[in-house]
């Protein structure tokens, strides 16, 4: 080994473990966020879902502490007053909040904390958490959204129409996000979402924050 090489050894990252970050997966109601996130979690064990707290009623297929933490409005307001939410928002008359401690603890452990939120929640998270990575999910068409919302069997026709009207306005906010994923083909959309996570975990600033 020459003198120059020994005097100037190559400096490598101290660890292959990347720093954690918050992944915001957002888009209109019925766009398929839940399915994409479910597939991402199955393919990337370093990803963990942050379960939101909500005051809305539990749907028949939902389980408490799985899809959401379902609480009363009084309990939600108590947690909000205590500063237990990273962000919160009111959507269609219901309150939604992101548990602060869960997010912060998992980020420290180097996990990718995934938030599946609507567009309003996405805006709140991006404002509250610097360095978050945001992905906007784009639907094949508004007619596809109508079919998906109707297929749930949980909303009255007038509620579906209101959600579609909101979706048309929400779609205009895609430019505020870091990435855009078209959900016109499930497998392709999953692959793109996984690629985003892999690329972000390979950022030099996450491998060597100093």
Helix run count: 9
Q: If you consult CATH, what is the topology?
A: Rossmann fold
**Structural class assignment:** alpha/beta
The Rg value, from CA coordinates, equals: 20 Å
Q: What count of structural domains? A: 1
What is the number of beta strands? 9
Helical residues, percent: 40-55%
Determine the mean pLDDT.
Answer: 87
Give helix and strand order, one letter per element, not per position.
HEHEEEHEEHEHEHHEHH
Strand order of the largest sheet: 2-7-1-8-9
Shape estimate: globular
**What is the CA–CA distance across the termini?**
29 Å
Write the CATH architecture name. 3-Layer(aba) Sandwich
* Low-pLDDT residue spans: none
The major pleated sheet works out as:
5 strands, parallel
Quick synopsis:
The chain has 210 residues and is α/β, with parallel strands linked by helices. 42% of the residues lie in helices and 20% in strands.
Polypeptide structure, described:
The strands form two sheets. A five-stranded parallel beta sheet has the order 2-7-1-8-9, sandwiched between helices. Strands 4-3-6-5 form a four-stranded mixed beta sheet. A hairpin with a 2-residue loop joins strand 5 and strand 6 (94-99). Helix 2 packs across helix 8 and helix 6 (142-152) packs antiparallel against helix 7 (157-170). It is of the alpha/beta class and 210 residues long. It has helices at residues 3-7, 33-43, 73-81, 100-108, 119-128, 142-152, 157-170, 186-201, 204-207, and strands spanning 21-26, 47-49, 53-54, 69-70, 85-91, 94-99, 112-117, 133-138, 179-182. It has a single domain, classed as P-loop containing nucleotide triphosphate hydrolases (Rossmann fold, 3-Layer(aba) Sandwich), CATH 3.40.50. 30% of the residues are buried. The protein contains nine helices and nine strands. The mean pLDDT is 87. The chain starts with a helix and ends with a helix.
């Amino acid at each position: 080994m020459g003198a120059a090489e020994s005097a100037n050894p190559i400096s490598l990252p101290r660890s292959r473990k990347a720093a954690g970050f918050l992944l915001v997966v957002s888009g209109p109601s019925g766009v398929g966020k839940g399915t994409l996130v479910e597939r991402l979690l199955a393919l990337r064990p370093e990803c963990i879902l942050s379960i939101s707290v909500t005051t809305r009623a539990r749907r028949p297929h939902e389980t408490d502490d799985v899809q959401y933490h379902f609480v009363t409005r009084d309990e939600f307001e108590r947690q909000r007053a205590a500063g237990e939410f990273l962000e919160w928002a009111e959507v269609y008359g219901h309150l939604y909040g992101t548990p602060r401690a869960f997010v912060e603890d998992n980020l420290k452990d180097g996990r990718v904390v995934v938030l599946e939120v609507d567009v309003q929640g996405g805006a709140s998270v991006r404002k509250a958490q610097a360095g978050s990575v945001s992905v906007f999910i784009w639907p094949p068409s508004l007619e596809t959204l109508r079919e998906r919302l109707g297929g749930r069997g949980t909303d009255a026709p007038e509620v579906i129409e209101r959600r579609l009207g909101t979706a048309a306005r929400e779609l205009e906010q895609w430019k505020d996000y870091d990435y855009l994923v078209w959900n016109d083909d499930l497998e392709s959309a999953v692959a793109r979402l996984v690629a985003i996570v892999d690329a972000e975990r390979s950022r030099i600033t996450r491998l060597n924050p100093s």
